[in-house]
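Checklist before submission:
- one chain only
- standard amino acids only
- sequence pasted in full

Submission:
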Amino acid sequence: MKLGIIILYLLAAKFSFGQSFTSSDLPIVLINTQGGVPIVDDPRVVANMAVIDNGPGNMNYVTDPPTNYDGRIEIEIRGSTSQQYPKKNYGFETQDSMGLNLNVALLGMPIENDWILYGPYPDKTCIRNVLTFHLAREMGHYASNTRYCELVVNGDYRGLYVMMERIKRDLNRVNILDIHDPLFNDTITGGYIMKVDKLTGEVGFSWASDYDNEVLFQFHDPEYDEIYTPQTSYMVNYVKEFEDAINGPNFADPNVGWPYYIDMTSFHDFFILQELGRTVDGYRSSSFFYKDKNSLTWNSKIVAGPMWDFNLSYGNADYCNAYLTTGWQYDFDNVCNFSTAIPFWWEKLLQDPNYANALRCRWEELRQGPLKTEYMHQFIDSVALKIQSARIRNFQKWPIIGVYVNWNGFVGQTYQEDLDYFKNYIEQRALWLDANIPGNCNLSVGEETFVPEYHKCWPNPSNDQVNIGYSLFTYSDRVLIEVYDQSGKLIYQSEVLNQSPGTHVHEFSVSTFDQGSYFYHVSDQNGTLYHGKLIKY
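Returned file contents:
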């Protein structure tokens, strides 16, 4: 960046209460629109963004040269309900000088061009989304990577922000195949990212559930104007078939019921995080799902996630019982009547003992790991310490501590009171779930050293020996472990016979594999159990 622009940033970066913002122990993001034009909801405006990040343990100064990014972006205000707040959220694309998408690694995150600057406002802890995404990743799922920073726009200090990834199909985000990739001539069965959401913002196409016209489905990536009519029809019909199957008399049948259509692990974990947070918009808004192509020899099922939008969770909403640590969030429609509703299948799935028992097992496993109260509290405390200096400046810019902000379920008189309320809510909510999660877990763990969980691949990446651990909840005549390359070619296969319920480990070598990404697949006589990505370096 030219010296003159740096000086302009420095001279203009003032707090509203008259102090200069000069340095931070977090990365600093400086955005300057052309001619100082305001950033609006639509259209995006052209700007220059400089990111100063001198590394862990080092101070960052607004006079420092950019170390992470210095170039063109196109930026807009984003969000729906959040646009009511004076502290705005932004979506932007990194671009080259010609305005074309430019993939970059912002603040150490994997390269891409679609990004979000999230400015916590009603969540005065500034941690709820960051915690939820961290827990989802610890549970084995993709969730947006996050990096705290401080933001200055056209010389105006905007406070503490979270740089994060926009949900998108990408190798390092939602890792599904491109819908337009003609793998095995398959350009129709995947990959799609969809969501159940309210009709706000840019909605090109939506359709309602046959069972409740207040349950609204939308395409997220690719967007509707990037999809051909046969592709749209395929996914609309697939969702209809899925709902018909769950509503049908054989809804638990492995060949025609819910097991054929959905990835059970992801649905369990989605349910667990929604209920742990008792997210007031949970299930009915900002609820994402995706489906890959069927071409890699197994039927790619609907996967629940990634997690999104938890700023009004963990007791941070004062309506529709969302502040209570008791009760079910999936029962929301019996508590409140909104224009959007919760899909019926979240409750119906619990009526299958196999689904409920496995859910209970999953909850108990997670309570020994990332959902252990002590672990969650330690993470919250570590983040609060990391952002301490920045959040003090943030609340000088936005003096809302001790002030009710729509729709706070609790208003602490100090930041520490808000933090303590957050931590106490999690503890009490988890205890209620301990006592009330349905099902009965009688999973017997074998003598393996593998820590019991649904499935795990380690070490990953690897250049030699790899372990795939997996849990069985019933006796299996035959378990098949397969590895495919990205073209769908079978690279490795092993068959294990007569396995009892419990946790098992399969070890094999990838030393002869070429460098790159592979898909592993674990199945039994009833079909797919688990699948994931394996990287050989």
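Reviewer check: The CA atoms of residues 479 and 524 lie 4 Å apart.
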